[in-house]
Amino acid sequence: MTGQLGVTPSARSRVVTLMDTFNLFFTPQVKDLIIRFTNEEGKTQYGDGWVKLDPVVLDAYLGILLLQGTMNDGRCNIQLYIGKAPGGAAEKNQGQRVVLDLVEYLGNQSGRNVTTGNFFTSLTLGEALLKKNISLVGTMRKNRKDIPSVFLPSKSRAAFSSYVGHKPDFTLVSYVPKKGKAVVLLSSMHFSQ
Question: Out of the domains of life, which is the source (predicted)?
Fold first, then answer.
């Protein structure tokens, strides 16, 4: 290599914010190519099931990759869901598998807590995490078999009312934000002895 080392004067003059720096590498033309070819391949692989990639989602994805690279000391603890493979069978207990994969690097004595959304949260996940000394807090889907029917949405429950249930190591809460709705939360972090 010849020439002066470091950032060129031209590049320095165009950088005011972090996003400006990012855009030096991922120009609008580069992003357009990524989006175009990703959508073409997605349509080929998944047909009408493909959800088009757009500039906002691309920026979010690239941002996650960069953040992971700077904050995660090389442990690549991320899984992207790209849908099931063409002709492939649906995976059973996918949510539980994903969470257990993502916490594997913590080992069995981290004493951490995992917070999950309703796709992931289940009693069996909570039990598996407790074996690793990791607690769980998360909302639950109403169709989970481990939720007693009294905790499910009902027109007979008053708005702003709550039910709380306990079993060893777990608390289940059902809150009614408005009539006919219920938010169900499972926690192994909050329980009575």
Answer: Eukaryota
